Amino acid sequence: MEESHEHFVNHLAEVSKNNKVVLEQDIYNQRGVLVVKKGTEVDRELAQKIAKHKLQKPLDTSISLQVSLSPKRSLELFSQRLDTLNLANAVRKSDVFKEAAKTFTLLTKYPLVAQKLMVLAERLPDVFSRSIGGAVLAKALAKELKLPIDTQNNVFLACMISEVGLLHIDPKVVNKKGQRNADEIKLLQGHVVIAKHFTGLIPNFPSIIGRAVLEHHERADGFGYPYGRKISKLCIEGQILSMVDKLSLITQRLVQNGPYSWSSVESVFQIPSTAHTPEMQNAMIRLIKYLSLDYKPAFPETAYKNILARCIEKRKRLAYWFKEYSKIYEDHHLLLEDSEVIQPIALFEQLEYTVKTSGILVDQQEHWLKAMYKQTVNICESEIEEFYLDLEEIEEQCFFVMQKLVTYKEELVRLFGEEELPSQYYAGLMFILDPDEKRRII
Predict the structure, then answer these.
(1) What residue segments make up the domains of the chain, in order of their start?
(2) Which CATH class is domain 71-291?
(3) N or C: which end of the chain has fewer CB within 10 A?
(4) φ, ψ for residue 387 (rounded to 5)?
(5) CA 276 to CA 295: how far, in whole Å?
(6) Which residues contact 249 (CB under 8 A, 6 or more apart)?
(7) Phi, psi for residue 361 in degrees, rounded to 5
(8) Spatial separation of the C-alpha atoms in residues 23 and 269, rounded to whole Å
(9) Is the Cβ–Cβ distance between 116 and 161 less than 8 Å?
(10) Mind listing the pLDDT tens digit for each residue in 312-359?
(11) Nearest-CA neighbor of 157 among 172, 174, 137, 135?
């Protein structure tokens, strides 16, 4: 695989301002012409020169950093991650922290890994922070599943390097705030292939780690990427990483960027999902319970009336969206059959399972919300928060469906014989789901 190095070499130039980056080997282009001699320090000018060429060898194997990521520094950064999540006291009292301190020594076995992670830590610190926190949790989850110690260590290393491919993708896309378009999403998804390629450069690196990295965005129901494989064709190491990635994203949304306490994460994880096996999901829920903190209201007491009103509105909107989405399958069931390139029926069935099993849209829930709204005393903040977060999780899964419909766009146009009807359905569903146009997927 010929890997683009333009963005990575620019990252190296920035890193070299505080951490000297030196070429350990002569750099040749694909035609065998010398581009830069070994011993040269990488700076902005040199980066621009190297970026113009396709190279014989990946830069990873031809450079050295004055300072690489050490086990001691890793533990410090992991502790900072815990502080950010207000989990420091709880985790330090558990076996998870002791295990982490020992596991970080694995980095000394793989200098190329420690070097690449140092670049990630300096250039994409938020991504690195999630990776290091996720790696510790991934090993703990592997242990909870009673997997062998070698598998636990492989899962740890796979999670640590699972996002290094982002260093080779345009930073404008990686760091973009707000909704990305379909082309940008496709570009970002390429990071799994790039990271898998990197694992092949590391001497004596277990091959299963590369496979886990490649599959860490696959789903048990077959709606992940890059290959859309179902659980029978996926390795458990990759599925552990996928489970941890889900937890990381939920934690970021609720705890880091939101007002909620850690207990809210446990609540959201109770929502059924076909993305992971019940065994995997239950193991993660047990692990979350080990680390849970006391519940703390996310909002002032006076705000909960407004939250109840939002719950009533959101629930009504989601129920209407799901009704209209279901009607498309009723009206066009002869057209919408699963094939090698499109699985509309399976997609509908997965969402239907989640919606119906959660019970979030049944009439009794509406009666409960309205009764709670009328109350003036004894409003249960935790139950209101939990219901609101459950609604948001269902909404996230609905947006996931809309994103998949975009990937099916060409095939849907072919099935319907025209672009107009699929486009109208998409526009109509998106208007119901997102009336304020905050999350349009292009």
Answers:
(1) 6-65, 71-291, 301-433
(2) mainly alpha
(3) N
(4) -65, -40
(5) 27
(6) none
(7) -110, 10
(8) 47
(9) yes
(10) 999 999 999 999 999 999 999 989 989 888 899 999 999 999 999 999
(11) 135
